[in-house]
Every structure is written in C-alpha cells, then in structure tokens.
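Tokens help. Consider this.
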Amino acid sequence: MPSRLLLALAALLLMLPGCAPKIKIFASQATEPLKEFVVDGEGQGKVALIHLRGFLSSQPKMGMLRARPSQVQELVNALKLAEADDEVGAVVIGIDSPGGTTTASDILYHEILGFKQRSGKKVVAAMFDVAASGGYYAALPADWIMAHPTTITGSVGVIFMRPKLSGLMDKVGVDVEVSKSGRDKDMGSPFRPTTPEEEALFQGIIDDFAARFHTLVAKHRPLSPAQLETVKTARVFTAGQARQIGLIDQVGYVQDAFAKARAMAGLAKDARVVTYRRDTYPNDNPYNTLDSADPAKLNMLGVDAGFIMPPKAGFYYVWPQGLTN
C-alpha cells in the first residue's frame, strides 16, 4: 500500500472514537524496551550483533509522527544488554555509515572502548557498504576489523561544512546587520564571506580534530610512518586496499565476522548470534538492520527528502560523498 494512502487511512482511523489506542503505527515504539532475537546459530553461548548505520549523531532523529533515538543512544542501550548478559562472549558491530559529527563519533569510540574494558568481552567490527571517517573512527577499539569485499572505508580526516547565503542575499537585495562583543564572535557567519583570518582559525580547529583522529589510528592500528602518511590524506580505500595498508584485519562476509567473534570468545562454532530490537520480524536474519517500524520516515509525499537539505554548520568526521547513500 502506498505510504500516502496508509498515512491518510491511519489519520482517518485516529479520528474515529475508540480507534487511536489500537493503531500501532502511531505508537511510540522508541519507548518500548529492546528485546533479544536469535538471528543465527543454535548452540550454547551468544554473540551480540549491534548495527551502527547512517549519519552518526547524538541527536534524536526527528520525524513527522515521532522522534527516534539517536545512533549513540541505541548503541549504548544495546551494549548495556550485552554487558549484563553472562552468556554473551563477544559483540559484532555492523557498521554502515559515512560518519557524522565529531562528537558523536568520539562518543561511540569511547563507549565501545569502555564496554571492552569493563566487560572483558571481545569486539569485532564488520563493515558493510561504507564505514568511512566517523564510521571508521567508531571501529578503532575493535579487537578485529573486517570489511565486506565491496566496502569503502578510510576518509580519516575532518571537514568543516557550513552553508553560505551571502551570494543569494546579494541577488535578492537582503542584508543582515550584526552587533557583536568581539571581532570573531560571528566567525563562520552564513551571511558574509569568510575572512582569511577566520579561515586560519577554522583550520586550526580542523587540525586539532584531525590530530586526535590520527593519534587514535596510530594507537590501534600497526601502521608504518609511510602508511600513516597515506591515511592522513583522508582518501577512501576499497576493502582490499584497506587490508593492504593495515586499516583492517580481514576481508570477508558477516558470517566470517561471527566465526571470528565465536573463536575469539572461545564459544562453540554454532553459538547463537542475537540482536536487540523493539519489534518482531518474521523470518529474521542478520541482514535485518531495523530495530523497529519507522513511521518517522513517512510523510505526505512518500519520500524522505532529508538528504537534499543543506548541512548543519559544524565539524564532521564524515565522508561527504557518502551522505546521499
């Protein structure tokens, strides 16, 4: 059923007496507890599969009908369940993300590293389509990093994106007056060109954030100075190239990640792989990345047009070309 018709029907039913409580699509499933589902294996012991996907942010995802938890919140929720379960010997984090904000990426790194240190449980990162910039940043604490044969990864660097409106305002004859307390109070303003002095200040911030990223790569990956210099160009790599330069440990499929996690944790070869979701899905499997039905994606046009909006001004560990995927 087309989403426009589904939305209209749901709205009509909501207006009928006694119908609203029965319409699950309008329920706030983000407030329902995460439940465990087995997606692979039948033996003793568990490997927890946790997905990390999309643009990484600590802000909730806002939709027309409701908000959904951010990637940071959901990953922390899932890690807590895995940490509290004595049967879980290892975690596989499935990453499909071009990165995100510098802070969200760093929080994810911190939480995964803290999980390892507190629990002593092994972590395997399994990369899918894209695990670039902040997506790769989040993978760094893993004991083993595996990429799908067609993964794009790398982009180890920082980008400062901000929309500029000064050219458009000149064309339509609109201006903005600013009163400020210091010379640099409005640095980065979208209403005027950036000055050379401001560019130098921004570059200093970018260099600081990049240095942190580079330091963590050097800490977790056994790269030679020459390899690290190549990585610092912030280019992207195929899975094979990333394996050759030392950014990842293995090229394979998600089943290989499960096998590695089971072996590292000393679990049986058929140990169960479990994941945490808010909804039940028939014929579930490891490739299901949904945690709940997502009415926030619905809108009156039946499309999600968020990817065409200009970026929010800020510093990002992100591969911009991956944002439209």
